[in-house]
Task: structure prediction
Amino acid sequence: MSEANIVTSNEQPAQLGRQLPVTAPAVDIYENETEILLHADMPGVVKEDIAINIDNGKMTLSGCRRLSSTGAAAWRELAEVEFRRTFAVPQSIDINKVHAELKDGVLRLHLPKSEAAKPRQIEITAG
Amino acid sequence: MMTRWSDINQIFGAMDLFRNQMNTLFNDFDRTYNPGRGWGTAEMFPRTNLSDSGDNLELTAEIPGVAKEDIAVKIQGNYLEISGVRKPDAPEGYTVHRTERPTTSFSRSFTLPYEVDAAKVEAKLKDGLLTMTLPKSEAAKPRQISIQ
Result:
């Protein structure tokens, strides 16, 4: 394979587009008897660019931020990034009922526990 | 001769990735924000971008989870101050496993490179990003000089 071939294979736009730097979003995690609740800071990410994958006990949260900038930069502290983080999720989560909302750049992800995992009050019957 | 081109392509793909990393090694060197890299300076909140589009200065600030009522912007000449409160949004009746998101009041001030017309400033808050368009004051605007 000649060197010219290597260069042309490098110029595929699909490959270049995928190279956003990755950063971990800050998260808060809460739990009560019925669900686990996760708040993640993802400023500048639109709903369409968020992907949540749950597979084999792992949940990967990913959101790409695109910035439109005009003019010459005087300073730059925030960039186009991919917010990505992976969590271990317990088997007791009901994957079909996971839902999320996005408001003011904060993702609120609800992970409801399955019925079998909820605490149950056992009634003692007098015999 | 049988050659498995997919294997060879895979090797060159890895080399391309490495070369891209090397090409961008110094791009971030003078930046204060380096996601995923080690040499960032002290954290400032909120992080901002400032760009100059000729007639306007454009400022973008990263303020997730703050309602617009909780943000105050003050402008005087070329002095700009953004302050506000990040209210705790912890739900009632939950046990806390992890809190990484700060809930404090914040304030950051800037000296802009030009004086701006405070009356014409526009600010928008969307998806946790505050975008401000700051028109330069008349004296600071670029001017076309006609040659006699």
